[in-house]
Amino acid sequence: MTAILVAGGAGYVGSHTVVKLLEKNQKVIIADDFSHSNLAVISAIQAITGQSVKSYRADLTQLEEVKKIFDENEISGVINLAGYKSVGESSQMPLHYYRNNLEIMLNLLTVMEEYDVYRLVFSSSATVYGNPKELPVKESAQRKPTNTYGRTKVMIEQILQDLAESDSRWRFISLRFFNPLGAHKSSNLGEDPNGLPNNLAPYITQVAIGKLPKLQIYGHDFPTPDGTSVRDYLHIDDLAAGHVAAMNNLLDSQDETSRFEAINLGSGKGYSVLEILQAFEEAIGKKIPFDYTEKRLGDTAESFASIEKAKRVLDWVPTYTIEEMCQDTWHWQLKHPNGYDNE
Ligand code: WQD
Asked: pTM for the full model?
């Protein structure tokens, strides 16, 4: 039985995607450098699914390490979630981000071609849109990223488009996901940021367990109903299901399908920071202290997705409510106050 290679498969999105693939009896290979994840994720995946999963600790910026994986396994398709993803850090270390994110993809494509593997799902991001002019954001919107992280995503999408244009054997889907939230129902997989959380949800839950004193809300005078910025939050399980649906679409695709598709994954609704905070306070059962501070550089006022194409092409729709997203996030944080450390 051929396998799906999940590059970055030990990460937050990757691990939930691997569980979904295994639950559909798909053979999976994980490749991860574990720089932003933990070996405990592998045991959690195996405990949840009751299946073993072959994993490689690999630096995918090294061509030889990618070749070894293809040499030792029969791979039918690749889901690439491997890459650095901190917006703030990317602006401080652009060369680090360009080298890592682009080299990983270039190595995967080079070796895929050598082994006649032409199906790849790319985990892109809503950051490719920058400050959207029209809402909801459609896939046809201009890609104008405002940070290095977003620019690595646009450059990689361009590489895939050029490759698809040059050789009809390739099929790509680039999933532009908005703001992932939540955790696996078992509360044994979840978001485990290194150091101080950049993202809103882990920051809130770390305040709730007393690891951080209070939340800083970045800006209170945006042109939004309550003045705080609005984002499109999506349950990690729905996001994982979207990756599986995209991979299956490519593996079943016949020659007449298009060779490169970009597809948004989001809830199609926008929630403000204060609305998310309130949903968490209801899930946690207590008030979360916060201060309003300056806006964060690069933050847009409002962004939420048009998800019509995901429904049409992948027959994919989001299934979780914002309350479930906050509850699942909170249950993960309660059960694993230090994430995967000390596991
Ligand atoms: C959400 C909202 C902040 C933290 C980024 C990437 C995106 C995706 C998700 C990877 C914003 C506000 C946040 C805090 C706050 N990642 N906020 N206080 O910036 O929308 O998206 O992460 O693909 O690509 O761009 O997510 O969670 O950082 O912020 O007020 O301590 O919460 O202003 O409105 P963001 P976020």
From this structure: 0.97
Give the residue numbers marked as catalytic. Answer: 149
Q: What does the domain layout of the chain look like in residue ranges? A: 3-335
Look at the alpha carbons of 34, 38, 42, 48 in this order and tell me if their dihedral is positive or negative. negative
How much distance in Å is there from the Cα of 208 to the middle of ligand 1? 18
Q: How many angstroms does the Cα of residue 209 sit away from the middle of ligand 1?
A: 20
Tens of pLDDT, residues 131-186: 999 999 999 999 999 999 999 999 999 999 999 999 999 999 999 999 999 999 99
Question: For the domain with range 3-335, which CATH number is right: 3.30.450.40, 3.40.50.720, 3.10.290.10, 3.10.310.40?
Answer: 3.40.50.720
Query: Which residues lie with the beta carbon below 6 Å from any ligand 1 atom?
Result: 85, 87, 125-127, 179, 198-200, 203, 215-218, 229, 231, 273, 296, 299
Structure tokens at 109: 């494509």
Segment 11-34 mean pLDDT:
97
Alpha carbon distances (Å) from 316 to 58, 83, 191, 241, 309: 32, 25, 23, 8, 9
User: What percent of the chain is modeled with pLDDT above 70?
Assistant: 99
